[in-house]
Design a protein that fits this description.
- With 85 residues, this protein is mostly helical.
- The protein is built from three helices and no strands.
- The N and C termini lie far apart (42 Å).
- 12% of the residues are buried.
């Protein structure tokens, strides 16, 4: 249970950082806002579907995927922010 909580805290922190990046994108480039919003919508749907399927697997796969997806989302948003400036 403690390990699960650590994963959740890590994901929450990454998600807060992603939200900050989205706000920066909104302030920098109106044309990139649409790209970021579309990315987040599609990525969210896909990652939730995969995590749902992983929930039936033994071990920590669902939590590890959740953390991995949060890192991937943050990296992609940082790339968008960098390229849209």
């Amino acid at each position: 249970m403690i390990l699960h909580q650590c994963y959740e805290e890590g994901v929450s922190e990454l998600n807060r950082n992603s939200e900050k990046i989205v706000l920066q994108i909104n302030n920098v480039s109106s044309s990139c806002v649409t790209v970021a919003e579309d990315y987040l919508s599609i990525f969210s749907q896909a990652s939730e579907r995969i995590k749902k399927e992983a929930a039936d697997q033994p071990g920590w796969l669902e939590d590890k995927l959740d953390l991995h997806f949060a890192k991937q989302q943050l990296a992609t948003l940082k790339l968008l922010l960098k390229e849209c400036r």
